[in-house]
C-alpha cells in the first residue's frame, strides 16, 4: 500500500493537480467522496472550471459537522458553494450527511445509505494533528471496523465521519495537504510507521492507488 507522493512548487500548483484529478474522475463518472476545510476550496473551484459537467457523478461527504446545511461550518455548504453551484450540469445525486439530526441518527442514516458503495475517488485532507476526515488521533472511531459511518464527539461540535474501512475500499484516495503547519503531520502520515496517533497514516486504498499532493512547506519533514 505504497503512497505516490507528489511535491509541487506551491500550494496553488498542488491544488491545480487535485482539481485535474477531480475533473478526470468526473469525466469517468461514479462515486466521489469530498472533504471540507479551507484547503480544498481552490481545487473545487478549479475542478468546476475544468469539468463543468458532473451529471454522471454521485457526490458523497467524507465527514460533516453536526450543524444544519446552511451553517458556515458545514462541509456540505463549502462543497456546494465552491463546486456544485458552479457546474453547468449538476451531479446525478448528492448524498449529504444530515448534520441537522442527532449525531447517532445522522451516522445511522449515512451508514444505511453507504451500503455497497465503493468510491472511485476520495479526496481527503490532513489536519496539523494528523487527523483526516473526522478521524482524530486515538479516537475510538479510528478502530471501528464494522461500520462505514460513525458519530464522533468533539468539544467544539460533534461530527459524523466515514470510517477507515469505507475510505480504504476506494479505488483512488487523494490527500491534499499544503502549508508548513502541516509538515509534522505529513511527515508522520507518509514517512513513519502507521498508527492510531496519526489517523491519516492508516487511510490507504487497499486495492487501488493512494496519492499525496503536497507543496514544499507540507513536505518539509518527509525523508529525502
Walk me through what this model shows.
The chain is α/β, with parallel strands linked by helices and 224 residues long. The chain has a single domain, classed as Rossmann fold (3-Layer(aba) Sandwich), CATH 3.40.50.1360. It contains six helices and ten strands. The chain is globular, with a radius of gyration of 16 Å.
The helix/strand series, from N terminus to C terminus, equals: EHEHEEHEHEEEHEHE
- The tally of structural domains comes to 1
What's the level 1 CATH class?
Alpha Beta
User: Sheet bearing the most strands, described?
Assistant: 7 strands, parallel
Q: Tell me, rounded to a whole number, the average pLDDT.
A: 97
Helix residue percentage: 25-40%
**First CA to last CA: what distance?**
20 Å
| Computed Rg | 16 Å
Poorly predicted sequence stretches spanning 5 or more consecutive residues:
none
What CATH architecture would you give?
3-Layer(aba) Sandwich
Number-wise, the strands total 10
**Helical stretch tally:** 6
How does the helix and strand content classify structurally?
Answer: alpha/beta
Question: Strand content of the residues, in percent?
Answer: 15-25%
Strands across the major sheet, in which order?
Answer: 1-10-9-6-2-3-5
**Any idea of the CATH topology?**
Rossmann fold
Task: Report the principal-axis shape.
Answer: globular
Amino acid at each position: 500500500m505504497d503512497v505516490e507522493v507528489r511535491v509541487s512548487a506551491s500550494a496553488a500548483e498542488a491544488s491545480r493537480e487535485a482539481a485535474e484529478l477531480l475533473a478526470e474522475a468526473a469525466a469517468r463518472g461514479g462515486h466521489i467522496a469530498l472533504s471540507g476545510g479551507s484547503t480544498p476550496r481552490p481545487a473545487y473551484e478549479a475542478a468546476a472550471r475544468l469539468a463543468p459537467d458532473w451529471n454522471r457523478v454521485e457526490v458523497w461527504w467524507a465527514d460533516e459537522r453536526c450543524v444544519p446545511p446552511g451553517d458556515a461550518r458545514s462541509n456540505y455548504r463549502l462543497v456546494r458553494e465552491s463546486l456544485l453551484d458552479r457546474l453547468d450540469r449538476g451531479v446525478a445525486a448528492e448524498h449529504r450527511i444530515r448534520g441537522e439530526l442527532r449525531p447517532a441518527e445522522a451516522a445511522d442514516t449515512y451508514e444505511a445509505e453507504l451500503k455497497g458503495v465503493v468510491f472511485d475517488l476520495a479526496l481527503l485532507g490532513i489536519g496539523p494533528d494528523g487527523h483526516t476526515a473526522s478521524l482524530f488521533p486515538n479516537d475510538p472511531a479510528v478502530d471501528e471496523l464494522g461500520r462505514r459511518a460513525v458519530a464522533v464527539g468533539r468539544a467544539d461540535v460533534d461530527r459524523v465521519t466515514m470510517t477507515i474501512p469505507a475510505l480504504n475500499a476506494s479505488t483512488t484516495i487523494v490527500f491534499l495537504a499544503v502549508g508548513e503547519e502541516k509538515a509534522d503531520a505529513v511527515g508522520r502520515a507518509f514517512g513513519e510507521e502507521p498508527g492510531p496517533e496519526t489517523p491519516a497514516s492508516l487511510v490507504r486504498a487497499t486495492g487501488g492507488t493512494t496519492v499525496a499532493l503536497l507543496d514544499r512547506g507540507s513536505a518539509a519533514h518527509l525523508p529525502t
